[in-house]
Amino acid sequence: PNQTMESYYQRIYDKTASLFTTAGETGAILSGAPVDQSDALKEYSRELGMAFQIVDDILDFEGTPEEVGKPIGSDLAHGILTLPALIAMQMYPNDNPIPKFFVDRDDRDMLSTAVDMVQQPVVIDAAFAVAEERCSVSREALLSLPRNPSRDSLEELLNYVITRRN
C-alpha cells in the first residue's frame, strides 16, 4: 500500500466532506447570508464532513458489526487504507502486518493480525485526536456567526459526530 495521508484526506474530502461543504455553503447562499458567514459555514461544513468520515473510519475498527452494519475491519479487508490503518503503519513501521496483508489479500490470519494492530488504543486515540482537531477547526468557524439557536444546533452536531457509534 502506497497511500499517503494527503491522498487519504483528498479521498475523504471527495467522498464525504465535499457533500457537507456544498450543503453548508448552498444553505448559506440561499438564505442570503453575507459572504463572511457563507465562508464560515463552508469551512464549518468541510471540517464537519472530514471529522464525520474519520469517525466512520474509526468505527470500522472500534465498533461492533451490529453498530456499524458491516464486519470489523471491512475497509482494510477490501483493500482500503483509512486513517487508523495509516496511523498504525506510521507508529509501527517494522514488521507491520498491513503491508503483508496487501501482498496476499486472501490471508485471513494476516488480516486479523492487522486489525488487531489497528485496534490498539494508542492508534484509535490518535485517530480520534485528528477527528477532534477537525471538529475544533469547525467549531472555530462558527464563532464568526451570530449566537442563536441555529448556531447552537450546529455546535451540537459537532458533538454528535465525535461521539456517534454508528
Explain how this protein is built.
The chain is mainly alpha-helical. The protein has a single domain (5-163), classed as Farnesyl Diphosphate Synthase (Orthogonal Bundle). It is built from nine helices and no strands. It has helices spanning 5-30, 35-62, 65-68, 74-77, 83-91, 97-103, 108-118, 121-142, 149-163. The model has no long low-confidence stretch (mean pLDDT 96).
Layout of secondary structure:
Elements: H1 5-30, H2 35-62, H3 65-68, H4 74-77, H5 83-91, H6 97-103, H7 108-118, H8 121-142, H9 149-163
Helix pairs in contact: 1-2, 2-8, 2-9, 5-7, 5-8, 6-7, 8-9
The name of the CATH superfamily reads Farnesyl Diphosphate Synthase
- Calculate the mean pLDDT score and round it: 96
Number of extended strands? 0
Residues in helices, as a percent range? over 70%
Tally the helices.
9
What is the overall silhouette? elongated
Strand percent estimate: under 5%
Question: How does the helix and strand content classify structurally?
Answer: mainly alpha
* CATH uppermost class: Mainly Alpha
- Give the termini distance in whole angstroms: 27 Å
The CATH level-2 architecture is identified as Orthogonal Bundle
Q: Could you state the order of secondary-structure elements as H and E? A: HHHHHHHHH
